[in-house]
């Protein structure tokens, strides 16, 4: 399969992702968001969660905040 064919097959999905400001590279942050949701449901404070995730995944706290904001945003389909 050529890159062009892959793009054509996923054109509508990629357009929706672009409209929602999502990048294909954001896939690597899915475990971070899943861990955030789990810790939130357990009742941990947001500040603690951000510090924990930053240490656990070796990502800056500011980046963690951006990930959480991006993944929590509503997407219209």
Lay out the secondary structure:
Blueprint: H1 3-9, H2 11-19, H3 30-41, H4 46-57, H5 61-72
Helix pairs in contact: 3-4, 4-5
Protein name: Mor transcription activator domain-containing protein
Organism: Bacteroides humanifaecis
Describe the protein's architecture and organization.
By secondary structure, this protein is mostly helical. It has one domain (24-77). It contains five helices and no strands. α3 (30-41) runs antiparallel to α4 (46-57) and α4 (46-57) packs across α5 (61-72). The two termini are 28 Å apart. The model has no long low-confidence stretch (mean pLDDT 95).
Summarize the entry for a quick read.
The chain is mostly helical and 77 residues long.
Runs with pLDDT <50, length 5+?
A: none
The helix count comes to 5
Order of helices and strands: HHHHH
| Outline | elongated
* Residues in helices, as a percent range: 55-70%
Total separate domains:
1
Broad structural category: mainly alpha
What proportion of the residues form beta strands (DSSP E)? under 5%
Largest sheet: none
Distance between the termini: 28 Å
Q: Overall pLDDT, averaged?
A: 95
How many DSSP-defined strands?
0
Q: What's the gyration radius in Å?
A: 15 Å
Output the keywords:
77 residues; mainly alpha; 0% strand; Mor transcription activator domain-containing protein
């Amino acid at each position: 399969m050529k890159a062009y064919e892959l793009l054509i097959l996923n054109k509508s999905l990629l357009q929706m992702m672009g409209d929602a400001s999502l990048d294909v590279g954001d896939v690597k942050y899915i475990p971070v968001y899943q861990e955030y949701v789990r810790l939130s449901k357990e009742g941990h404070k947001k500040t603690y969660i951000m510090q924990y995730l930053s240490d656990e995944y070796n990502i800056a706290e500011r980046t963690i905040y951006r990930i959480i904001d991006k993944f929590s945003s509503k997407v219209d389909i």
